[in-house]
Amino acid sequence: MTKTNENIKADLFTSDTQIKKARLAKMDKTTRRTNLQGKISKNMILLGLLLFAFIILYPLFWMVVSSMKSYDEIYNNVWGLPSVWHFENYATAWSMGISGYFFNSLFVTLVTIVLVVLIGSMAAFTLSRYKSRWIDVALIFTIGGIMMNPQVALIPLFEMLTWMDLINTHWALILTYVAYRLPLTIILIRAFFLSIPRELEESAIIDGCSEFGIYARIYLPLSIPIIVTTIVLTAYFAWNEFMFATVFIDSDVLKTIPSGLMNFRDALRTDWGVLLAGMVIATIPMVILLVFLQRYLVRGLSEGSVKG
Amino acid sequence: MKEGARMIARRNRMIPALFILPSLLFLGIFIYIPLVQNFYNSFFDFSVFSPTKEYVGFSAFEQLFADKVVMTAFINNVKYAIISVIFQVAFALVLATILEDKLFRRIAPMLRVIYFIPVMISISVIALLFNFVYNPQMGLLNSFLELIGLGNLTVPWLGNATTSIYAVIAMSQWQSIGFITMLFIVAIQKIPKELYEAANIDGAGKIRQFFSITVPQVKEALFVNMLITITGSMLVFNEPYILTNGGPGTSSMTLSVYMYQQGFFKDNMGYASAVATLIFVVTAIFALIQIKVSGTGKDE
Description:
- The structure holds two protein chains of two kinds.
- Chain A is an all-alpha fold.
- Chain A has two domains: 2-66; 88-304, MetI-like (MetI-like fold, Orthogonal Bundle).
- Chain A has twelve helices and no strands.
- By secondary structure, chain B is mainly α.
- Chain B has one domain (59-294): MetI-like fold.
- Chain B has helices spanning 2-41, 59-66, 68-100, 108-120, 123-134, 140-147, 164-189, 193-201, 206-217, 219-235, 238-243, 255-265, 269-294, and strands at residues 44-45, 54-55.
- In chain B, a hairpin with an 8-residue loop joins strand 1 (44-45) and strand 2.
- In chain B, helix 3 runs antiparallel to helix 10 (219-235), helix 4 (108-120) crosses helix 7 and helix 12 (255-265) runs antiparallel to helix 13.
- Chain B is globular and about 75 Å long.
- Chain B starts with a helix and ends in a 6-residue tail after the last helix.
- Chains A and B meet through helix 1, helix 2, helix 3, helix 4 and helix 5 of A and helix 1, helix 3, helix 4, helix 5 and helix 7 of B.
């Protein structure tokens, strides 16, 4: 009886090890197979990623290369490199109007940035430090501004700016850009201000610092990262905004780059190389911004989650 | 002494009001008043420089619902929204997941920047560039199709009523996928790594992990990105305006382009305002949902 029992046990034991061995062998096989599969699928995915990168980059590469071609070559030799590199297309584009648009854009963008940062951070200061029924109302008023879109306000703004005698001036763009950037800016900066410890300002008050001093000497310097984010987002918006720039400004000498490029195209007709050179010039500042301030940009876009 | 203290207290009470006043003025004058004004304008008939407005009641809205072009435009906006949700939300989520996978750790940062470049470029530059891409004679797209022996597929993409709206939508996808991908990458980076480690030990494959961990964990971002994309699609103006101006005919019209044309070309400012009101109602619904879900501005 005991013997059989032991036999059974032994049997069980051997079969157990056998099963284990078999299982191990099988596992080995499957892992090897999944490894191989993994490698193939990894390379397939990598190929897909690179293909997508190519689809994104090629038109841009084409734009840069063709900006140094003559019209004939753009038309007849779409893929090739230029036989003669017409670098002078850039000088022509610059002197034929792009320089004017460029400096208009620069002016509008810089003034917009200064006003947005100043007005936005001041409002955020109040909204983060004080509590009352009125402050709550102001906060809702500000957040509500995010859901308003420029398209719906286009005609009334046109009427209003005409009435204010600001239509066809840079202020028509600056004032409306500031207004539409403020809600998001205030919300971003306010969230940052809320994280600043109260103890800092309490010691400042004891030291005799005024409210304005607390804002200018404690809150602003501590908030440099979020302010850089605001600057980058506002620059990106003001540099690229198209609809207001087209509708509110009629005079060619006042146009910013996005709307100016349309006039530029109409004036050039078939001088495609020069047009492409102008397009490259319009693009350069934003690509520089992306390369150097990527971190701030991504942070702002993701926290704001509002398309420009 | 007591007087002085009270003075300071009062001045301190004034400062918060003074600090917030400029931004309230900006928002009030340039955002809220125009909104109200637009509703008001919808009930009048007027032209850009006419000094008087003629009250016409709801007739602009009656016209709106009978207007075939409004229907075409609305359908185009819906097409824009559907295709954008598929590419910019679904595809971008997959792309972001792949880029955040350990397998591609080395190449991902470079790809991220590449995919993001078009987002930074002005829409007018992109649209002018795509005029070259879609050009029927020398365009990159048709030249490419001929190069790979699919010459019979070449179409004047923007000049053909059936393809024009899709050509416009395709350009938008090209430009914006990188944007939503970046938003997803940020969301994925917030997922605790332990979840994936545990799933690995349990033997869950990559696809299983995507559906059981990534998707539920980025649910909120997924929803917000979807709403951004849909709202953006209902508002879209620049792309169709520059590429086709709604044409040929009205085949690539969108609501915003139609509003612009009615207002500034046909000088039917009142009717254009009614179109704008329609746009507002459609987008406000989505915006309200978005604010509710994302909880923007909530105290931490």
